[in-house]
Amino acid sequence: MTESRREWIDVRPLIPQVSVEQVAAFYGLPLPEMQRVGSEIRCRCFLNCGHDATGDRAVAIKADDPQKKWKCHQYGCEHGGDLLSLMDLVAPGTHMGGRPKGDRFKQLARDLQNIAGGDVQTKPVAAPAVVPPATPAIEPVANVRLKDSPNERARGLVNLDMRFLVEPSGEMNKFAAGYFRKRPYLTPDVCRSWRMGYLPRPGASQERTGGTMQGKIVYAMCDDDGEVLSWFGRDPAWEQEHSKWVASGKQGREPEKFHFVKGFHRGLELYGQHRLREAEREAMAATGLVVVEGPNDVIALSCLGAMAVGLCSNIATDEQVAKIVRLANEHAAGRVTVMLDCDTEGENGAKKLVVELAEHCRVRLAWSSATNGGVFKQRQPESLTAEEWGEIRTHLKHP
After folding, report:
1. Which of 381, 75, 378 is closest to 235 using CA atoms?
2. Is residue 9 part of a domain?
3. With contact defined as beta carbons under 8 Å apart, do 292 and 310 qualify?
4. Strands 335-338, 362-365: parallel, antiparallel or unpaired by DSSP?
5. 121 pLDDT more than 70
6. pTM for the full predicted model
């Protein structure tokens, strides 16, 4: 028998013997508070995969699954897998995106064997050290306007939308052109108004401004005063790439749907927050401030006369909840309508958000997969017709 064969460890029978809590203890990783939601355990994301703080139900772990299947539902993360993939993201050293191979896999297999054998000796984890309470207060995290950024290149991106294409043309690839054709509300005027559009990849002789946003549908995230804080992009070919990934048996890393610039704290902001000062008081009085998931939902509802803000996720952070309450009090007489997507993730996030908001303001749920006999199941707000929105608006009208 070769040396490499003797080192091989079969992880399949080991994974059912080990819990997430045991893995965390082995690597010295403090776990956040966990909540049981049906057959799942939900908690804040505690993985070292590079994204910011999340809502406290971002990570879903299948409690009764022998393989400990899990997924992070935070936009821009969406990692998932079994217990070994989770170990890859929390163990010391450079992770492999939850898909360990080679020496990384061998080390994790040995760790798994040790944990199953009762080894509770903790190892240092590659997570930032917890700051002791006695240390001086840390300055609150905040996003900086691009025009005020200390980075010269970032300051040069304030008017990136001047390069956007806002209607299907030969300069767009087929996926970008199809993205606009499927969304007729994204007219050139609407796109320019919202400072969004397609950023083409430059030719050899053209300026390469835009970096990671090139080839994406790009949106401006503005502060309350309308100043650009950051740009974020949506892959127009995501549906096709995701279908290929599923068909391959989910081999490799899951395709990224939305891309945010590293260092931008999206959990502090709400897409569309700068448009509320322009809102028609009559529209706000009818439904209150509408809270949705994505930027297209915000834009589509604005075309139907509704004022909405987007989480850019299906889970609201504590900071977003506080901001929703503040904006609702300032612009909508303390009224909020929650209208996340009518799918499992959206409805789970909506239920939690309704409870959190109800402590501070008047809140209603716009719809669910059971509304009107299930006609809205698997729908998103951006898909609503004027007639459908009119019916929902009438139902939501406050006395």
Report:
1. 75
2. yes
3. yes
4. parallel
5. no
6. 0.69
